[in-house]
Specification:
single chain, alpha/beta, Amidase signature (AS) enzymes, 18 helices, 11 strands, about 10% strand
Length: about 525
């Protein structure tokens, strides 16, 4: 029996809650202690809500006590997330709580209602520990663009955790929570999952309601789970997915209960692979890819083949246009979505003497938005402006259709799923790409096409490169989340004996040093040394 409850997986916590070996309050306190102790070094949390979490934990314990009195049937009917700690990215609305989206312009804002996914998690009795750090308005690939400071990767405190959901990923990797939620617009769940060595899924567009989420690019954003293994991630997706009438893009597609019943046995999980066809898209092995990362991906492919699957080379010929297309469509939608932050409707007001509305507006946005947000708003406004709309935005949408068609044709040929790298590199050092926006944007080259096509993708750990995690990406047709989780669970079974499976993040123990440098101080020191 593991003496440290923070090292348990969510389903192991659930089992102990049902037998009475532990309580939801004890679990919450252990995770809160870890988060509070290490947040100085990691900056993964913008808010740690001890009082609120303990109230929710006590409520979960009351439900568990009643179910134990009612017998095994009542216990079996409880959702596996009852009493389980969860972290929420700080663009998810929680009634009465802060929702900054990582930006100074929303500092002090309190959400007046719960997001749909928060309602769902309340319904099953999950315990919210707080709000996690993120790149401002989800614009970033490293979590260095947060207005509240960067986040450190627990594997190496001088490196980034990936973005924009870096706080959610780092919190799970550091054992502050077993589960967290992020958003993925161009890779912002899968890429930090890869860099932090955990599981992260971007579901099919429309699988999870976006109601109550601060929008970046409305045709691309999607909420998804982080966890330390596929079964836990699948349980979290099961809890939050489903139709919501308040979100017109939310699809009326049933959520399979099988997400709660992935195989427990490694042998059973691996057996699912026999006869499956996977595609290996040649375009995802981009120029400049870390050779060791590429080796880990090909080793993973060999595991699949040895287990009875077939892996075939395939082509997605319009992949090379994905980056350029994304950086027209996403900034254009951001330009429209962020227009509301004007100091009148939303945002800190910088009212100047003289009643000059335009001056007030410019001061509010000039002081409230960070450099990356300004860059993307300007790009988007330019692409939508008269004389350039057809040349840029309309053309980008046409290319987007071609990118989706590539995926459709591959899946129509009988390929069950694609297997590819999640990121072309492991986590990089603070500041390494900050002065070169194009280099930063290339961090998402392997993940962007999935968002452009609205498809599901999951990143799972597949080994280490020079001591840092490498992620394997699985991509499926629309609504194939269950199949992708089965494939992910099978890969976990194949690699269950791998040494890297049981390693703690290499520098996690250093995060206990309250006198050590913060991520912002580490970033400044690295910048000064260049």
């Amino acid at each position: 029996m593991n003496a440290d409850p923070t090292r348990l997986l969510a389903r192991e916590m659930a089992a102990r809650l049902r037998t009475g070996e532990t309580t939801a309050r004890a679990l919450a306190e252990a995770h809160l202690d870890a988060a509070e102790r290490q947040n100085h070094a990691l900056n993964a949390w913008l808010v740690i809500d001890r009082d609120g979490a303990l109230r929710q934990a006590d409520a979960a314990d009351a439900v568990l006590a009643g179910a134990r009195r009612d017998g095994p049937g009542a216990l079996a009917a409880l959702h596996p997330l009852l009493g389980i700690p969860v972290g929420l990215k700080d663009l998810i609305s929680v009634e009465g709580g802060q929702c900054t989206a990582g930006s100074r312009i929303l500092e002090g804002y309190r959400a007046p209602y719960d997001a749909h996914i928060v309602e769902r998690l309340r319904d099953v009795g999950a315990v919210f520990l707080g709000k996690t750090n993120m790149d401002e308005f989800a614009m970033g690939s490293s979590n260095e663009y947060s207005a509240f400071g960067p986040v450190s990767n627990p594997w190496d405190l001088d490196t980034v955790p990936g973005g924009s959901s870096g706080g959610s990923a780092a919190a799970v990797a550091a054992h502050h929570v077993p589960l967290s939620l992020g958003t993925d617009t161009g890779g912002s769940i899968r890429q930090p999952a890869s860099l932090c060595g955990i599981v992260g899924m971007k579901p099919t567009y429309g699988r999870v309601s976006r109601y109550g989420i601060v929008a970046f690019a409305s045709s691309l954003d999607q909420i998804g789970p982080f966890a330390r293994d596929a079964r836990d991630a699948a349980a979290l997706l099961h809890a939050v997915a489903g139709r919501d009438a308040r979100d017109s893009t939310s699809a009326p597609v049933p959520v399979e209960d099988e997400l709660l019943h992935l195989p427990e046995s490694d042998d059973e999980a691996v057996a699912w692979l026999r006869g499956r066809r996977f595609g290996l898209p040649r375009e995802y092995f981009v120029a400049g890819m870390d050779p060791d990362v590429e080796r880990r991906i090909h080793e993973s492919v060999a595991f699949l083949v040895d287990a009875g699957a077939t892996v075939e080379d395939v082509s997605l010929p319009h992949t090379d246009y994905g980056l350029a297309t994304y950086y027209i469509v996403a900034p254009a939608e951001a330009s429209a979505n962020l227009a509301r932050y004007d100091g009148v409707r939303y945002g800190l007001s910088r009212r100047l003497e003289g009643g000059d509305f335009i001056a007030d507006y410019l001061a509010t946005r000039g002081e409230g938005f960070g450099a990356e947000v300004k860059r993307r708003v300007m790009l988007g406004t330019y692409a939508l402006s008269a004389g350039y709309y057809d040349a840029f935005y309309v053309k980008a949408q046409k290319v987007r259709t071609l990118i989706k068609r590539d995926f459709d044709e591959v899946f129509a040929s009988g390929i069950d799923a694609l297997v590819a790298p999640t990121s072309a590199s492991v986590a990089f050092r603070f500041g390494a790409r900050m002065t070169d926006p194009v280099s930063m944007y290339l961090s998402d080259a392997c993940t962007l096409p999935v968002n452009m096509a609205g498809l599901p993708g999951v990143s799972i750990p597949c080994g280490l490169s020079e001591g840092m995690p490498v992620g394997l990406q699985l991509i499926g047709p629309a609504w194939s989340e269950l199949m992708l989780f089965r494939a992910a669970r099978a890969f976990e079974g194949l690699t269950a004996a791998a040494t890297w499976r049981n390693l703690e993040p290499a520098q996690l123990a250093e995060a206990d040093d309250a006198a050590g440098p913060t991520p912002a101080e580490r970033a400044a020191a690295l910048a000064a040394a260049r």
